[in-house]
TrEMBL record, chain A:
Belongs to the anti-sigma-factor antagonist family. The lineage of its organism: Bacteria, Bacillati, Actinomycetota, Actinomycetes, Kitasatosporales. Residues 3-103 form the STAS domain. It comes from Streptomyces luteolus. This is Anti-sigma factor antagonist. It comes from the Bacteria.
UniProtKB/TrEMBL annotation, chain B:
Keywords: Hydrolase. Residues 161-408 form the PPM-type phosphatase domain. It comes from Streptomyces luteolus. SUPFAM superfamilies: CheY-like, PP2C-like. InterPro entries: Bact_Sigma-Reg, CheY-like_superfamily, PPM-type-like_dom_sf, PPM-type_phosphatase-like_dom. The keyword Hydrolase applies. This is SpoIIE family protein phosphatase. Pfam families: SpoIIE. The lineage of its organism: Bacteria, Bacillati, Actinomycetota, Actinomycetes, Kitasatosporales. PANTHER family: STAGE II SPORULATION PROTEIN E, STAGE II SPORULATION PROTEIN E-RELATED. The keyword Hydrolase applies. Signal peptide: none annotated.
Length: 103, 413
């Protein structure tokens, strides 16, 4: 599945939908979308990950940037991550700063 | 010889009749277009062009845009500005790098001018190609130097305490790597530090942070004395480690904690904006007893393969990846290695190795292969190497691969 990232903002909740593989080749597009989301002044960032098939370490780094970009007061939730993606996030201990939520 | 193909560029789609006549007499193929015509055309619909003959009344910017459009189709025409009366218009074009053509447009004179212009353009393009190639070579050489310097951040040789075999496979996916490993002696050679780490992301950035993180870890561990209490100060009051350390003081735990906690604090204090972090397994082994105390900072769990055929033990994370969360506490993990056992430490390049259809090697298959591998470290790595190459086939290696086998020889075997 080709990588795709979409942003929609509704009542100050920014939702980014990810498809395909988030890795060194695609992380830049995710960064840009996070910048857009941060610029809207969103108070919550929801990352829909149902169709995210793979999260490489460059993708984890992109989540670190998202955390920094949105600021500490913004809740970030990864929703519906598949088992391998959720495992990658938990293994690195990122589930402390990002909420993993079932779809 | 093929006829020269000339594209005359003019806003009104006309040109001085004497010029067109001269071009005709020279047997050239002439197309007359406006800049709008050229820029609006789809790829592949432009006439073949050797010489772009642009009216000097157009702006140099417009002429450059048209030339670039032709470049996109690999045409790379010689650009020549012409004027009939307003010769002063040529100045800005010459400044912009074009050649020029002025009246009288006598066929022999025009031919001589076009030939000169062509030769000059060819020469200048050759020079550009040579310069670009030289620049590329220079980058490649710099990268190669980077690789050599990075190799200097890996140990020259691995210590081998009595009865132990330590073997490593290290295969970067690119010239420079984000993975690293280290093995060194601690506490007056009574303990052995074992490190396998993976700096996130790829390329030169990851390689620079590899050098920093490796140095921080090793330097801090080597400088930590037996009695140092820094680790206890750095930790919060209620960490697992402190509770544990009150019960059983563990030699080697202090340098371990100092190194990992100190590196995490250094990175989060000084480099948090760059967003680099490392997952790492850092173990301190007592070669006499086989006792292992470790911190697993968000790293793929190493596998302890039992000589007695028992279930392999996974050494799960005891804290998050290093360099992300300020002031976080890392707990200590403990394991007992027995004679004949092998500890297999690796990076995600192993489990995330991909076959041609894009499937991952995966942890389950890796553990299965470990069970089938021979008992000794070197043979185990050979076996895993073989299983990986067979799985990956002709697919390109996408991530650095590091594997370390720590094997305690069974004296009775």
């Amino acid at each position: 599945m080709a990588f795709d990232v979409r942003l929609r903002v509704n009542e100050r909740v920014a939702t980014i939908e990810l498809k395909g593989e988030l890795d060194a080749g695609t992380a830049a597009r995710f960064h840009e979308t996070v910048d857009e989301a941060a610029a809207t002044g969103a108070i919550e960032l929801v990352i829909r990950a149902e169709q995210l098939s793979y999260l490489a370490s460059a993708g984890l780094r992109a989540l670190v940037f998202a955390r920094q970009k949105m600021g500490d007061d913004v809740r970030i939730a990864v929703v519906g991550a598949t088992e391998p993606v959720a495992r990658t996030i938990k293994l690195a201990g990122f589930d402390h700063s990002i909420d993993l939520v079932d779809a | 010889m093929e006829p020269t193909k000339v594209l005359v560029l003019d806003e009104r789609r006309d040109a001085p009749p004497e010029l067109l006549t001269a071009l005709d007499k020279l047997g050239t193929v002439v197309h007359v277009r406006t800049p709008g015509d050229v820029l609006a055309k789809e790829v592949g619909q432009l006439p073949d062009t050797d010489v772009l003959l642009a009216y000097a009344g157009l702006s140099p910017h417009t002429v450059r845009a048209v030339a670039r459009r032709l470049d996109d189709e690999d045409q790379r025409p010689t650009v020549v500005a012409f004027a009939e009366h307003d010769l002063h218009l040529l100045g800005s074009h010459v400044h912009a790098g074009s050649d020029y053509l002025v009246p009288p447009f006598h066929p022999d004179l025009v031919r001589a001018r076009l030939r000169d212009c062509h030769e000059r353009a060819t020469f200048s393009r050759t020079m550009e190609d040579v310069a670009a190639h030289a620049e590329l070579l220079s980058y490649e050489r710099e990268l190669e130097i980077g690789r050599e310097i990075q190799m200097g951040f890996l140990p020259d040789s691995l210590p081998s305490p009595d009865g132990w075999e330590i073997d490593v496979r290290f295969r970067p996916a690119r010239t420079v790597a984000g993975d690293f490993y280290d093995v060194f002696e601690l506490v007056n050679r009574r303990r052995l530090a074992l490190v396998v780490a993976d700096v996130c992301d790829k390329g030169v950035g990851a390689a620079l942070f590899m050098a920093l993180i490796r140095s921080l870890l090793r330097h801090t561990a080597e400088q930590s004395g037996l009695q140092s209490l820094i680790a206890a100060d750095l930790l919060g009051e209620e960490t697992d480690w402190e509770e544990h350390s009150r019960a059983i003081p563990v030699v080697g735990a202090t340098p371990l904690l100092n190194a990992v906690v100190g590196t995490n604090n250094y990175l989060t204090r000084n480099h948090i904006r760059q967003g680099y972090f490392a997952t790492m397994f850092f173990g301190v082994l007592d070669p006499v007893t086989g006792n292992l105390v470790y911190i697993n900072g968000g790293h793929n769990p190493p596998v302890l393969v039992r000589a007695d055929g028992g279930d392999p033990v996974l050494l799960e994370p005891t804290g998050p990846a290093v360099g992300v969360i300020p002031d976080v506490a890392f707990s200590l993990g403990y394991a007992q290695i027995s004679p004949g056992d092998t500890l297999f430490i690796y990076t995600d390049g192993v489990t995330e190795a991909r076959s041609v259809p894009g499937h991952f090697f995966g942890e389950d298959q890796m553990i299965k292969q470990l069970g089938e591998g021979a008992a000794r470290g070197e043979e185990l790595l050979d076996h895993m190497d073989g299983a990986l190459s067979e799985f990956v086939g002709p697919a390109e290696q996408s991530d650095d691969i590091t594997m370390m086998a720590v094997h305690w020889r069974d004296p009775e075997a």
